[in-house]
Amino acid sequence: MPEPLPADSVGIVTSQLITIDRPLALACGEVLASHQLEVECYGELNARGDNALLICHALSGHHHAAGYHQGDSRPGWWDHYIGPGKPIDTNRFYVVCPTNIGSCFGSTGPLSTNPATGRPWAASFPPLRARDWVNSQRLLMDALQINRWAAVVGGSLGGMQAMRWSLEYPELLDHCVVIASAMKLSAQNIAFNEIARRAIKSDPDFCDGDYANSGSSPQQGLALARMIGHVTYLSDELMGQKFGRELRIGDFTTGTAAPVQFEIESYLNHQGDKFSGAFDANAYLLITKMLDYFDLAREYDNDPAKAFALAQCQYQVISFSSDWRFAPQRSREIVNALVAAGRDVCYCEIDSDQGHDAFLLPNRRYQQALGGYLARAASALEARI
Amino acid sequence: MPEPLPADSVGIVTSQLITIDRPLALACGEVLASHQLEVECYGELNARGDNALLICHALSGHHHAAGYHQGDSRPGWWDHYIGPGKPIDTNRFYVVCPTNIGSCFGSTGPLSTNPATGRPWAASFPPLRARDWVNSQRLLMDALQINRWAAVVGGSLGGMQAMRWSLEYPELLDHCVVIASAMKLSAQNIAFNEIARRAIKSDPDFCDGDYANSGSSPQQGLALARMIGHVTYLSDELMGQKFGRELRIGDFTTGTAAPVQFEIESYLNHQGDKFSGAFDANAYLLITKMLDYFDLAREYDNDPAKAFALAQCQYQVISFSSDWRFAPQRSREIVNALVAAGRDVCYCEIDSDQGHDAFLLPNRRYQQALGGYLARAASALEARI
Fold first, then answer.
1. A355: alpha, beta or left? (left if phi > 0; alpha if psi -120 to 50)
2. CATH topology of domain A190-288
3. What is the ipTM of this complex?
4. Does the global pTM surpass 0.90?
5. Which of A16, A287, B97, B219 is deepest in the core (most CB within 10 A)?
6. In this structure, which topology does domain A16-184+296-382 adopt according to CATH?
């Protein structure tokens, strides 16, 4: 924890575990009679309960989006963008970030106990769709006495949730901010997810998902899954700049068979190992399936303009030039559908060499674009009688 | 085997195993006292021994480039391009295609017996560089009484060998054809190879490379490795056209948790499984390392123009618009270096949606470009007194 804390930090934060004792009917047909959400909130809810801003996390995200946990040296995953005076301004918004169900950071998920069996859900946790996260977040609203979201904001899978929010509960949000996202995954996106899943499932320590009971954990498979994902989060350009062909071990002297290791190999293996110690394999399988299954317009005759015609909020769509996981073209498809549906939309393509990960990283233009949009939203909100 | 065989096929072919009883000094310092190459040859060597054309295979290639093996329904891997009247015209060229050492299709490699131990080399096979393949092919020339290559031709890793040929033995080739290749791998290229290697090595059946002695085989790891490679061989565009989001199993009806499988998942798993039954894991590790280690200009002060200044042959460089493994820009770098070195070079960027695999697939423009270039080479050769 830096000493003193930065002035634009939300400071020391603690999460709260909120029990939602109302049934949550999932898209797969199962019903969770009750579920729990681990949540962090920053800022203050106004008297009208309408200055709340929902942060939707992506595949590996969680509730700890900003500020510092006691004793931690690193802040939450979106601290560059959330805090007093930051683009997501906690002086103006009541910022709410839950870990969503199905993940592995305290909220109900594969690591939780299935009340029907008294044992962990593990691989038997019900398959989820983005709409299930939205419906869970809808119940969270009531639990926190929020009447309306000033904005629902998310990157990647978070952007998909934000779009789904605008279709499922159009009357409950003013703004929808969709960052580095897409209306559905491409075959290539699905392919990378499937390789990651096979890496996990073919690890003998996976034990058909029952690894916790077997006292094992598919660490190798999960590390491989993350390594595959990680390459798709970075741009070719950035990897070239950061690592190029630099060597960590050995050299290419003729006459030696000594091993050679490139810096990129070392980095990537480290990223994989770090992740496999911090994430749950069943959750990874479940959430990559959510990504694959997401298709904004499936229930709207595959016509995204028809889908967005139901929305009432205003949209901001942001993409990054070097993102090849969800390239700018995918954001332009969203924008085109919004325009066709007559929606109010502001689109920014941010020049960045950081690839998909750019949505998490400092970037002045991005900060200006997001901050400017949300400042206008806050001003309009504060001007309401 | 089609009945009758196509008129432009080289017909029924058999390979020959050629023993090269001369020492081959490898870049790593080890010496193979003798080695064997499994080779196919098509066409006839002329009296001067100078109409030979060397085919350099890529990562997973082998000696069976054209024609049909007795009883096979599918021809060799480059049959679209090799045959009487085809771009690599067996009426004019004596086409030679060896499986290179270190691979697993009959030539000396990890599956061969190490004479020093009497047991398979397995993981102890010496690490190789592209130049070792070139030096082995140099010895093959003598064994086949070839005095000069009319052309050395290869795609991907094969293109790297072809370039290396033009630097190591500049006086022994007239033409060098470099297809869908690069002067060195990028950090992203290396990253994908490293994930593939880790997939193999972390498969418990790999047994540190000693799987043959353990009666096992890292099938899962090798399948994963191939799946990763395969995605990088196809373009996003092509995968979208061929598979899109089509489903093989299940549907997205609300209220069901029944599994859903996309066509792309099924296809990719099938490709992985097919490959893992046909390739050797130690060879895969070894050859991906060769790819990573290749750096055309490393011994030339990292100046490719300085490297190519030593060459004497003419070059054709071909790239494919949708290839993202070795994108057209990588070929343009080769061309720029050749131009800077004052070499004669012809460059073609072929419009294709097939990604890196385009170099193996039918494409009229590509056939015309390669065929036209080699026809001119053949005419010049035939006009020699």
1. left
2. Rna Polymerase Sigma Factor; Chain: A (1.10.1740)
3. 0.96
4. yes
5. B97
6. Rossmann fold (3.40.50)
